UniProtKB/TrEMBL annotation:
Pfam families per record: LamB_YcsF
Gene name of the record: pxpA
Record text on subunit structure and interactions: Forms a complex composed of PxpA, PxpB and PxpC.
Identification of the protein by name: 5-oxoprolinase subunit A
Domain of life: Bacteria
HAMAP family documented for this protein: PxpA
């Protein structure tokens, strides 16, 4: 391993007066912020505020695009026609970039959220529609890196389209033996023990290895590590993960 890892988290996941993520605290630890663009969470005021705070902290801003599913937090399976999904992806990226540029920065990458993230791992058509939306937004923004699961259809489609890809691993999610994530409907999908999450984070960043749900070791070379912003005590966990990565000799640095 090269001893360098990006630390990302999902931010801006609120709506109106309801706030889910501790954005200010998370921004003190992460190097990349996956900002909700209004389809699974977020609203214009929240997007603007998070972009301003991210710019102040020197944190890179990524568009966390989703199916249009506020009620289900973007975690429900949906069937969206490819052309419609392409337009919705471009729409979300463009909306976030307005606030990013007003804050003196820009959208630096794209990461799907929830059900769309998992669907695009295996569904070639949906993955291609997401990439088409990223390219559509890129007509004015330039080629945007795509953050996603290694070996996914999303990354295959992005590479075919000439977009940079960034391999992502999860500090707090369970893995199946094939390298995909354990569905949230199954036991062991989300890891809540802080010591376990920290140990996994260091193993992923330093050794390129993670333990699957069945106990076998998986090779997992990643450039970015995700700590979910909506897990209990996420801000403190992200801070501890960063501290332990640094103590282990891993440089925490944004990929974008």
């Amino acid at each position: 391993m090269d001893g360098i890892i990006d630390l990302n988290a999902d931010l801006g996941e609120g709506f109106g007066r309801w706030q889910l993520t501790d954005d200010e605290a998370l921004l003190a630890s992460v190097t990349s912020a996956n900002v909700a663009c209004g389809f699974h969470a977020g609203d214009p005021a929240t997007m603007r505020r998070v972009c301003e705070r991210a710019a102040e902290h020197g944190v890179r801003i990524g568009a966390q695009v989703s199916y249009r599913d506020l009620a289900g937090f973007g975690r429900r399976a949906m069937d969206v026609p490819a052309d419609e999904l392409t337009a919705e992806i471009a729409y979300q990226i463009g909306a976030l970039d307005v606030f990013a540029r007003a804050a003196g920065t820009r959208v630096s990458y794209v990461k799907p959220h929830g059900a769309l993230y998992n669907r695009a791992v295996r569904d070639r058509e949906q993955a291609a529609a997401v990439v088409a939306g990223i390219r559509l937004a890129g007509a004015t923004l330039g080629p945007l890196p795509v953050l996603g699961l290694p070996g996914s259809e999303l990354h295959a489609a992005a590479e075919e389209a000439g977009l940079p890809t960034v391999r992502e691993a999860f500090a707090d999610r369970g893995y199946r033996p094939d390298g995909t994530l354990v569905p949230r409907s199954e036991p062991g999908a989300v890891l809540t023990d802080a010591d376990q999450v920290i140990k996994r984070s260091v193993g992923l960043a330093r050794d390129g290895e993670v333990t699957a749900a069945d106990g076998r070791a998986l090779r997992m070379r990643a450039r970015s590590l995700c700590v979910h912003g909506d897990t209990p005590d996420a801000a403190r966990l992200a801070r501890r993960v960063r501290e332990e990565l640094t103590a282990a000799g891993v440089e925490v640095r944004a990929f974008a």
